[in-house]
Amino acid sequence: MVPAGNIDTGDDGNQKFTPDAEFSAQAHLKSQEDYETLYKRSIDDPEAFWSEVAADCHFFKKWDRVLQWNSPFAKWFVGAETNVSYNCLEHQINQGRGDHTAILWEGEPTNQDGSPKEVVQLSYKTLLAEVCKFANGLKKLGISRGDRVTLYMPMIPELAIAMLACARIGAPHSVIFGGFSAQAIADRLQDADSHYVITADGGWRRNKVVPLKSNVDEACGMTKLVKKVVVYKRCGNDIDWNDERDVWWDEVVKGMPDTCDAEHLDAEHMLFLLYTSGSTGKPKGILHTTAGYMVYTAYTAKLIFDLQPDDIYWCTADIGWITGHSYIVYGPLQNGVTTVMYEGAPNEPEWDRFWAICERYGVTKFYTAPTAIRAFMKQGPEWPAKHNLSKLKLLGSVGEPINPAAWHWYHEHIGQQRCPIVDTWWQTETGGVLITPLPGVTPTKPGSATRAFLGIDAAIVDKDGNALEPNENGLLVIRKPWPGMLRGIYGDEARFRKQYWSEIEGVYFTGDGARCDEDGYFWITGRVDDVIKVSGHRLGTAEIESSLVSHPKVAEAAVIGFPDEMTGEAIAAFVTIKGSDKPDSNLKDELRKHVATTLGAIARPKDVRFTDALPKTRSGKIMRRLLRELATKGRVEGDVTTLEDFTTIAQLHKE
Ligand code: PRX
Questions:
Q1: DSSP labels for 501-529?
Q2: What is the DSSP letter of 399?
Q3: pLDDT digit string (tens) for 398-441?
Q4: How many domains is the chain built from?
Q5: To 10 degrees, the CA torsion angle through 201, 205, 208, 209?
Q6: Is the CB of 437 under 6 A from ligand 1?
Q7: CATH number of the domain that 177 lies in?
Q8: Are residues 468 and 397 in the same domain?
């Protein structure tokens, strides 16, 4: 085994892994001094700093001003005109990368010997041609600048093509994760007032067809908003067809020219909406705009993954989440590298699928989630050991805290003690990574996302906004605007102000608890609001509760997250039922299924418990803390003096 640079144990007892000298020597940023100097400059003079960073991107018209900050509203690169699709395509081709592979895709189905049945490689030139054809097709359907287009697709190249086509003509996309249900699609269509949907007949997942088109049909029936549904033929499964509304992808692109000028869009033109969960029942449409997001994703991808021209970069996220938007599509393509896409499950046909893919294409940079790592750990190191992973140079982690045991396993069995690990902290709202090691620079401590990225003023404060001392637990806030930040919640300015900018006066509140150690390293402890992270997927307790109470037998429900070895957190639902019927295990299953049908399988509670009453305060607020204690420790030990009816706890103990 090659040792991972220097390993030492610091005063705090944490092991520190210093970057390998060979890696640092070839990296964009090579030393702590590089980082400290740039960081200082980025904070002291952000406008000059971001202006220099943006010089790598292409603008049709340069900005008049870098930042206009009227808290909580930021405008970046004010007055500039650009196009993200142009930056991902022509701007790369103009730098001589036209024949280089942009997207390398593998479908899920395999042959007997485990080799993939379908592989698609699209060069930057071919991708441009495909994007242009589809963009022209969208225009012909009547879609134009400003129209919100909903994408509900499997992980196939056409999803990236559709996003880039929308961005090209200035039609904001709203991608919905393929695991969401018809009701979730309908809610998002309605909120975005979106009249156009792009989908596929189905997508492959664990050797089964996910019936995407039929979910869209059902959603369309619920809203009546949708004028056109474009359908890509992926699986050939049977689908219903509405002649007036539905049109095949192939028909849309048939005869379309393969050139389409990118629209010159204002820097603050809406690039996309992405719905995510918050503390109320209604998902929020996080709004990102053009130039700031473009510059931020390009720059963070370049430095954090240390992207170099010949990298084969693979982020295993689904494009339905922000990670896929920023670090499968927009970030890597703006750096001219090859971005790998895989359609299906990590264990199809066997538990070594990811490692087979890494070996097959010589993946150099690999980015995944702690949940996946824990699942691989459980299967054992013999699966990665079957494959040659010697091309890997860097590993990344995202979506939830990575526990040190998973970090070490990843480091040893995937990175072979050679690859730096970047544990990247960020959110749908932040557009790109805010806290992370820089691979050639930052000594890492397993379990810490380490330091703030350039230009990011992160701090730990108490609820009154006072900065805390090292190692004190508090709330994570960002004190200065950054280019990739969300610009709002679609159609809900009041919620935007309240959720992010009012909890703690004058700063962006992340919703995360954290502490910062004496080296300025951030340790994220998890959400402090009613958001749960199950396998890195973000869910609101209120959404699950409203799904439960929509079941005819449920009177009241309280949902909490509790620690789970595999999924990080799991969902427990405490439910009171109507009438005097005795609930049984059939009803438990029925309720779990009900949530999966109304919201999507990822929201299915692991545990459902029935109770005659929920523990409440005298003012009627559900005491979730007690429920959390019960689910975690199996009993309530904490302070119960504000509880209105003590018998509820006794009864819950009996359950
Ligand atoms: O709690 C933090 C956790 O994920 C939340 C954001 O979720 P989402 O918007 O779905 O975006 C996930 C992908 C960027 C955060 O508020 N989180 C994300 N990354 C990390 C993390 N927690 C700890 N460590 C991380 N690296």
A1: IITTTTSEEEEEEEEE-TTS-EEEEEESS
A2: S
A3: 999 999 999 999 999 999 999 999 999 999 999 999 999 999 99
A4: 3
A5: -10
A6: no
A7: 3.40.50.12780
A8: no
User: 513 and 472 in one domain?
Assistant: yes
E strands in 528-648: 531-534, 537-540, 554-564, 568-577, 607-610
In the predicted model, is pLDDT for residue 647 greater than 60?
A: yes
User: How far, in Å, CA of 69 to CA of 507, rounded?
Assistant: 12
CB of 323 sitting under 6 A from ligand 1: yes
Answer whether 449 contacts ligand 1 (Cβ < 6 A).
Answer: yes
Residue whose Cα lies nearest atom 22 of ligand 1: it is: 400
**Domain for residue 265, yes or no?**
yes
For residue 276, give its domain range.
Answer: 7-423
Instruction: Judge if 470 and 353 occupy the same domain.
Output: no
CA–centroid distance, 332 to ligand 1, in Å, is 20
CA nearest ligand 1 atom 14, residue? 427
The tokens 């699609």 sit on which residue?
185
Apex 65 CA angle, 59 and 66, nearest 5: 75
Distance CA 429, CA 547 (A): 25
Both 343 and 469 in a single domain?
Answer: no
Nearest residue (CA) to ligand 1, atom 24: 401
Tell me the best of 426, 428, 529 to mutate to test the pocket of ligand 1, counting ligand atoms within 8 Å of each CB and taking the most: 426
The Å distance, Cα 199 to ligand 1 centre, comes to: 27
User: Both 503 and 589 in a single domain?
Assistant: no
Q: For the segment 349-383, what is each residue's pLDDT rounded down to a tens digit?
A: 999 999 999 999 999 999 999 999 999 999 999 99
Q: Identify whether residues 69 and 214 lie together within a single domain.
A: yes
